[in-house]
Amino acid sequence: MSFEPRLIEVHLTPAGLRTDTVSSLLNTMSVPAQELSAKSTTPDNILLPATVKVSSSPEYAQRLIVHVARSFLTSPILIGLITEVDDIKQPPFTPFTFERRVKHFESGSIISSARNGALIAEADNWTAASLWQPPGFTGGMDAPRYHNPPPLLKEFITKAAAVRAKYLGPEFRERYWHLSYLARDPSKISKGAVSAVMRPFLQRAEEDGVPAWLISVDLHAVQVYEHYGFRVCEKIIIGQGVARPDGWPEEGGEGFAVWAMVFDQHLG
After folding, report:
1. Of 41, 46, 58, 167, which is least packed with CB atoms within 10 Å of its CB?
2. Which InterPro entries does the UniProt record give (predicted)?
3. CATH no. for residue 39?
């Protein structure tokens, strides 16, 4: 699928970003962040940048990959998944190179999600960026690494899906906004950049009457998400018996944690 970039202004009203119209909303949308957050019940004490741009283009997907690769340096799940693929048995003396991290994310869900209409939002010239999959989205699992996933990745996918089904229940099994990635450029300072790529979509979940869902791979990030109204549903342990808490391989290791979180306070 190819995209022809064009810039329009879109308001996230209840009819604005329906799943069946995401593809037709084209490549790039310029959205006034202040207006988008006006009705939201999420935190409103943070100054937002003037605009947040949203796209499903291949260019945005590649920019997000680079952005995520720069932001995720020591995430246990990143370490676990790369060491599994590269057959690394003990920690190296230096962290994985930037190029190796890019390669990891290029084989994942970012490109396939964007190709199938997921929304990549960036604020303040990529100070912060996020990837959101709208309700009913099913296009993120056709990436190469998911065709025959290695054990740790398969365990993560299976456990995450089970926990999601447990807490969303039949009513919202396929009706939820999924925050797949959130990354911030540590070299840039911009108040409100993270809010700009979070709050419009949380407002949209409120207006749609559906939850938002994510898996946090970092305990510090859990606190960030809690600030926006998410709550921890369950702590999930991956790699018990084969990995350390930091993600590196260890026979008999206790495994590493990820946290399933839901945004649902508006549902009563």
Report:
1. 41
2. Acyl_CoA_acyltransferase, Trichothecene_AcTrans
3. 3.40.630.30
